[in-house]
Description:
The structure holds 2 protein chains of 2 kinds.
Chain A: H1 9-20, H2 28-41, H3 44-52, H4 60-78, H5 81-94, H6 99-111, H7 115-126, H8 133-146, H9 150-163, H10 168-176, H11 181-193, H12 197-208, H13 214-231, H14 235-238, H15 242-250, H16 254-267, H17 286-301, H18 305-318, H19 324-336, H20 340-352, H21 355-358, H22 361-377, H23 390-407, H24 418-430, H25 434-450, H26 454-466, H27 474-488, E1 503-509, H28 522-534, H29 538-550, E2 554-558, E3 565-572, E4 575-585
Antiparallel strand pairs in A: 1-4, 2-3, 3-4
Chain B: E1 5-7, H1 15-21, E2 23-30, H2 33-39, H3 43-59, E3 68-70, E4 78-89, E5 92-103, E6 106-108, E7 116-119, H4 130-146, H5 148-157, E8 168-171, E9 174-177, H6 181-184, E10 192-199, E11 205-216, E12 221-230, H7 244-247, E13 253-262, E14 271-272, E15 275-276
Parallel strand pairs in B: 2-3, 2-4
Antiparallel strand pairs in B: 1-8, 4-5, 5-6, 5-7, 8-9, 9-12, 10-11, 10-13, 11-12, 14-15
Amino acid sequence: MRTSFLTCAFVVSATAFAAGAQVAPQTLDATLRAARKLIDEGSAADALAMLGANDARAFGKRGQARLAFYQGRAYARLGDEKKAIAAYEHAIAVEPSYGAALNNLALLFSRGGDPVRAAALLERAIALTDPRRPLYLDNYAAASEKAGNIEAARRAYAQLAAIQPDNVDAQLHSIRLLDDPRRIALQLMKLAGRGEVSAAQSLALDLLARRFDPAGNRALLSVVARTLAAQHIDPRRFGSLPVSSRLETLRGDSPIADGIAEILLLYGGTAAPARFRWWRSPVPDESFAALIRDIGETYATTNNEQQAEAYFKLALDYTGGTGGEELVELADLYYTQNRIADLDALARRAAKRDSAASADFAAEYRLHVALGTMYAYLQRRGNVRDPTSAIFQLTEATRAAADYNRTVKWGPRIPDDPKTIELLANSHERSGDLARSLSIRVDAAAAFVADGRKTAARAVLKRIAADPTIITDAAVRQHYAQVVDDLAKPLVIETAIEFPDSVQVAMSLAVPITGSKPPPLGNEISGLLAKYVLAESDDERDRTEDTLRKLGVSDLEPTTMSRMTGEFVVDVGGKALRYRYVVRSE
Amino acid sequence: MKQIVLALFVLPVAMAAMADARRVDVRFVVEAKQFVDGLGSSRKSVERAMTQLLLTECSDPKSFPFLEWVNSDAAAPNRLVVALVEKKSGGDFETRLEYRATINGGGLPPEGDLGESVYRWFDAKNADAADVLKARLQKKIHAQFASESFRRNLLRYFVSRIPLAENVGLAGHRVIVEVPAKTLQANEDESELEVSFFRKSDGQPGTMTLGEPLDYPERAGVLCRIKGINFDDLLLADGWHPRIPEVLGPSKVRGVRVTMVKYAPKWFPDSHLGSVTSD
């Protein structure tokens, strides 16, 4: 030992244990602490010597069990499994509810090739009220799986995943052991949605190698596409990433070979719509649409505008022209490149869309605000009939917001935006309709005041406040006076939370088939769908979804942000049928 | 006794002082002019709410619970400021989240990988509505911290540069880091610590990577395996090199810092590879 090093006081006492194994009387806790220290440092033999120097009978039952536990640990550390097992068994014989000893003994059995016995011990451990129960559950699940009791393993991992929702390994195990690949895919999508993208992707790729039925493999490949989109991978780097080679390896699997080829094609820079068929059938897969969009966005952020445009156009083609996000991205691209003719064509195309079909009013609102803002900055004010104008687009935005807010019973609504109001009112004024401009301002200000947003109200009234005489209409003037009066009053906010008195759930077959009636469980499914849609927490929603799954409902996919409409698949007379649902709360 | 337990790099630094070094003052600020003007006096409520959210997210077990995240502590040596900023885009401004860090008084440049768009230039911003902005930011920030890749980037940019300890000791062929396992909450199989130091004589820098930070309550720390060393021509054999005690003696090195370079949360305390280590 070099003299310049400082030795520590505890080293001296540890050395004393090692040297003589005869120690002065001390408390049990101190003995066990010192033994544990020796085991941790790799001096298990010294620990055994020290533990053996104590008269176990002097410590009572609990003390005897604890001494045996640390002897078990020391023997295990020395690789003497037989003696370790004997020590742990002694600990359990003295104290049958000794969770730590049950656990460690079970691990020795499991490693020694007897997972059945291990699982039986761990079953006893998890029945205890013990803060280490999550560890016991984890070990129990592993032992059960090893013993071939997959259902018990799955249940235990699911319990652990519920106790530790952020424990990704527990989540992955509980998903991995599901038997239905579509359920696996659904759970992996949820895991990815909670941020664990790499873990979800890795398990999906692992499972694809197992080869399920074609629909199952398709669902898992969809998870891969979705997670790739969430990783925002630069196409130039894709080839060097492990996921690329893993996909290449899976290309030999014929049911998904074409799907993989199209992913690789996409990253290879090809955006010709005709080259992408697999993902469109039977209906365009939304995960692949997200991947196309993401690659387009990556090109846009790296200033490769030509490729970005090609990918956004591909995404638009892929979604049948209904994709609001693609339209917004293309509009931004055209605006920044000053390609006004292309922007106009896009706005006309957007106006022709059947917005009711998607019922996604929030996306609709965002698209109209974006186009309206762009036209306002281009000073293309227009009118309510011209889709290539600020007035048309911003008016449509107001309509979409109102439509959305009508469908939402609680939860966030689309609020009026003072800047959007300002742009709309200003456009009307500059296009010569001052009266309309002023009434928009006053109406919006009244709504803002009612919401307690006085700053917003003052902002939209600024034009009038500078010269109130510009209001010529008596009714508007009176309304303005009322708003000004309200603005001067102290703010009082009353919030009424209304819960629906009744809920109606309508279901219809997505593909009508003569003679196919809703399943016998229709009423129960309806009730659960209502609960699912109106759930006030994610946990409650997840529980309801789980119950629906147990009733045979799979692929539950809301089609709107509010979840009021959506689709699901259920088995009817041996056939998997896709249903649409609409929940209306009164 | 065969085991040699040595205190290396021993400095007269109290544990309390090291706890200070781990302290990070975190706060959220609204700097985007549109929002500063629009929010007026309610800006403070947004900043308070988001600061509280950041404190919760940063100290969450899956994030970085081994650091002491605080707010309004002017004495904290480290700072993380998350700012709502705006930058010219299209016809108006894009509103973004920007992460800026300071370690022991030294500022790091903002990290692009951590930034996030909150509103594009053409989006309805509702710049006056604190509740609308709070809901939007809450969703964005929560989603960021939920993302494993974001946490990895934040660790690389900032967290992995904050010293957890300024000395280490040796116990046999293992290294003791005097930070309690309960503080680190680090999974032994996946987490890694890094010891960086300089040779006193010529200032030559060196690093040592430590794995398996096992609970070592006797020294209120963790006992780690040496996974790698980057100093002189030392090559590890079986996680050890006989020159390590000589090279790293307290009279030979200065500027010792232990940092967390790879972190995975430990879900089952007082256990190792499934076994209970302490009853």
